[in-house]
Amino acid sequence: MSVKEQLQSIDALRRVVKAHKVRREMRTDANRFVANYAESMSDHACVDYHVLLIVHSLEKGMCSQGLRPFGKKKVRGLIDYLKTYSENQKVSTAYEMGVSILLVWKDLFDKHGWQQEDGYKAVNEFLKTIPASFEPVPVGAHEYTLQDATAHRIDDFTTVIKNRHSVREFKRVPLKRDDVFDCVEAARYAPTACNRQMIKILEVTDQAKASKLKDAIMGLGGFDKDAVTLFVVTFDLNAFTFYGERNQGYLNAGLVAMRFADALHFKGIGSCFLQWGNTGAEEAAISKLLNLKDSERIAVVLGAGYYPDCTMVPYSHRKEISEIFIEV
Q: Could you list the residue range(s) of the whole structural domain that residue 22 is in?
């Protein structure tokens, strides 16, 4: 047996080496993230993402129940980003959505007589520079009825997928057990790495636990907190064997969570993905609250409930296929 083989046969040493590789690869990932995430980039590569983020933020503002002047700083920031586009770059979906949301925002402020509000003049002046030939894309907010949410056939998969919207308002009735179980049944058929099935879906039914979870979650603004049911999607680190799988948990959880959300929609249950970007200490506290074992990580939280008769949702216009599909 060679020296290398002898060393590899020592379990304790092998575990130390593996742990070192995990830390090394995670440092590499962190360095790559820091070098490439939106706030660190000075070129135009991230402008589309900034624009899309502001557009969606303004759309959510347009869905508010008690509508009031909003987005005054955001529209100024959006204008600054849009001014950086060259003529060739103005064909992007992000640019079209940015200009279109300003048109909708201005129309809304005109309708409510908010022309004196901060930001209105800047938007009005910028829109004067947009050619009359500009064709707006669907942005803003629109009514979304129960009939809209359920207007699909069981054999029309594309319609079901395209017809789903994230919603933040729900009927104040508890979810039926059979409906939830049917959706979990669909979710458990989502693919996982080597069929290791390391994903769990927790429905938080204890009100005290749900209250603490709601306090910890980011992105609950605009939610009917008394009507929403929370589902926590977790993955188990015990399932993974080497540093190359360090991101598999989130990937697999995403596959299961999306299948679950689509199944909920098919059952007439609306949902919205809630960001889980908490600190390690916050996650540890919630993990203890939910009785998770040490190796379980929280990937994402879904808020869900039966669709109301009518609510408001963002258009969330999508990029063209040519912008996201590339043959190489």
A: 3-36
Distances (CA, A) of 311 to 148, 162, 171, 307: 11, 17, 10, 8
* Strands 229-236 and 141-145, sheet pairing: unpaired
Q: In what order do the strands lie in the sheet with 296-306?
A: 199-204, 229-236, 296-306, 269-274
Position 198 confidence tier, pLDDT thresholds 50, 70, 90: very high
What are the backbone dihedrals phi and psi of residue 200, each rounded to the nearest 5 degrees, phi first? -125, 150
* Residue 29 near residue 246 (C-beta atoms within 8 A): yes
- Considering its fold, how many domains does the chain have in total? 3
CB 272 within 8 A of CB 296: no
Q: What is the pLDDT of residues 149-178, one digit of tens each?
A: 877 665 677 888 888 999 999 999 999 999
Burial 266-299, CB ≥16 within 10 A → b, else e: bbebbbbbbebeeeeeebeebbeebebeeebbbb
Sign of CA dihedral 285, 291, 292, 293: positive
Cα(30)–Cα(44) distance, rounded to whole angstroms? 22
- Do 108 and 133 fall into the same domain? yes
* Best CA proximity match to 272, nearest among 180, 202, 167, 135: 167
Retrieve residue 25's tokens.
Answer: 């690869």
- Is the pTM for the entire model greater than 0.85? no
Give first-to-last CA distance, the chain, whole Å.
Answer: 46
